[in-house]
Amino acid sequence: IMEDYLSWRGFLYLRLDGSTKSEDRGDLLKKFNNPENEFFIFLLSTRAGGLGLNLQAADTVIIFDSDWNPHQDLQAQDRAHRIGQQNEVRVLRLMTVNSVEERILAAARYKLNMDEKVIQAGMFDQKSTGSERQQFLQSILHQDGADDEENEVPDDETVNQ
Predict the structure, then answer these.
(1) Keywords assigned by UniProt (predicted)?
(2) pLDDT at position 150
């Protein structure tokens, strides 16, 4: 759909997805990052992109298909936040209200929140014992369960009663 729209508007763009040959990927990146290029849009499938893609010529990242794995979306954003980036990078996320996309985003936020609590709490620094880590994780899960009850979003059936 996005590609059809860009063609209809006459916008020149580059595209990298699962069907792109690995030998063509480097050429696409060089074209896009060249300051003299005529392309200002790079369509990229986050999973097809893999690691190490550098899109420092981009100053806007638009995520229109959020991933269940929040680190995939973060990596997509980070492709524009590279050494050599001259501009402020804006990140936009497109989604439909009251859709599965909202649930995907909520799950992704929950996962990132859990990452922050577990890893950044320092319990996995090789200094704590297995039982201490397990007790810590149980307390986090118990706390998150209580938070979920307070902030639970009613499902469609409940709302329509």
Answers:
(1) ATP-binding, Helicase, Hydrolase, Nucleotide-binding
(2) 46
